[in-house]
Write a structure and sequence with these properties.
Helix 2 (about 35-50) crosses helix 13, helix 3 (about 70-80) runs parallel beside helix 8 and helix 6 (about 135-150) packs across helix 9 (about 195-205). A six-stranded parallel beta sheet has the order 7-2-1-9-10-11, sandwiched between helices. A three-stranded antiparallel beta sheet has the order 3-5-4. It has a two-stranded parallel sheet with strand order 6-8. It has helices at about 20-30, 35-50, 70-80, 90-100, 115-120, 135-150, 160-170, 175-180, 195-205, 215-230, 240-250, 275-280, 300-315, and strands at about 55-60, 85-90, 105, 120-125, 125-130, 155, 185-190, 210-215, 230-235, 260-265, 290-295. With about 325 residues, the protein is an alpha/beta fold. It has a domain at about 55-100 and about 130-295: Deoxyhypusine synthase (Deoxyhypusine Synthase, 3-Layer(aba) Sandwich), CATH 3.40.910.10. The radius of gyration is 21 Å and the shape is globular.
């Protein structure tokens, strides 16, 4: 005799009632469609997390998506103050700043990289970045900014402080760095020299040996954040140092209270980028009863859907 299943039924999508992205995400939760069900779960956890006034919310993400139009989604999240703190990579600054001054272009994964090299065009997946839109413009603009920052008389900065100084000197509302500075949302870069922005700081130091970066100050601020917070939550896009720095500091307060992780990495190679949120529980980086989900897929597809849902759900 078959026992009765105590679980909701699978409901088919209904195009006639799918007028908005909010409708779509709600139907994803009822359709039971593998990853689609996780989209609804992720959106629901984030809605609860962002609505919890007692929760300090972290956002981490990699550089690559900032070369795409997904930069606009992250920018809106920062502009609307959905998150209280950003932990990311130097490459995020590279792409965010470069795109305030120059254009990137759409290409394809199958283009001839030898030919592109001869044309002085970098390829990032299916995004094309002319040489003059990256290293050249970053050197020109950042060295000018450093001259202005140097006039303030300060010689020592944490990564958060130097990034904010740059953000305050931007005049482009499309920029994540601009809005983070304007809204006083700290950006921490735990690996500051792994990109063009860090290289420009190194170049500045060659002629200004008094210039110093104090990474310990960043870490002290993060310690103060996690120890003072009543609750913490995180949206972590991609893995690497950005994701790990979020969960690393949160282990000292017995783990995150909410977590949504978006990844394309596999679990079976043991990498941090592929480690599901449930693994973090064993390390004390995520509370045992915390709402959490690992959403597998391309963030350039998933983030616009989830952010559009939240835009309405958080009104």
């Amino acid at each position: 005799m078959t026992r009765k299943i105590r679980a909701p039924p699978v409901i088919d999508y209904d195009l006639s009632t799918m007028g908005t992205v909010e409708d779509l995400v709600e139907q994803m939760g009822k359709a039971g469609g593998f990853t689609a069900a996780k989209v609804f779960e992720a959106a629901s956890i984030l809605r609860e997390m962002l609505s919890d006034d007692s929760c300090f919310n972290f956002l981490s993400f990699p550089a690559c998506i900032i070369s795409t139009g997904t930069r606009g989604i992250i920018k809106e999240m920062v502009k609307r103050k959905w998150f209280d703190c950003i932990i990311t990579t130097t490459g995020m600054l590279d792409h965010d700043l470069a795109r305030t001054w120059k254009r990137y272009h759409r290409g394809s994964f199958e283009m001839d990289d030898v030919e592109l090299h001869h044309m002085n065009i970098h390829r990032l997946g299916n995004v094309l970045i002319p040489m003059e839109s990256y290293g050249i413009i970053l050197e020109k603009k950042l060295q000018t900014m450093m001259k202005d920052i140097w006039k303030t008389g300060r010689t020592e900065f944490s990564t958060r402080e130097i990034v904010k100084e740059v953000g305050l000197r931007l005049d482009d509302e499309s920029s994540i760095t601009y809005w983070a500075a304007k809204n006083d949302i700290p950006i921490y870069i735990p690996g500051p020299f792994d990109g063009a922005f860090g290289s420009q700081l190194w170049m500045w130091k060659q002629t200004h040996p008094e210039f110093k970066l104090d990474l310990f100050k960043d870490e002290q601020e993060l310690a103060d954040i996690v120890f003072d917070a009543k609750k913490t939550g995180a949206l972590m896009v991609g893995g690497g140092i950005s994701k790990h720095h979020v969960i690393w500091w949160n282990q000292y307060r017995d783990g995150l209270d909410y977590a949504v992780f978006i990844t394309t990495a596999v679990e079976w190679d043991g990498s941090l980028s592929g480690a599901r949120t449930r693994e973090a529980i064993s390390w004390g980086k995520l509370k045992e009863k915390a709402p959490h989900v690992t959403l597998e897929g391309d963030a350039t597809v998933l983030l616009p859907i989830i952010a559009s849902y939240l835009d309405k759900a958080l009104d």
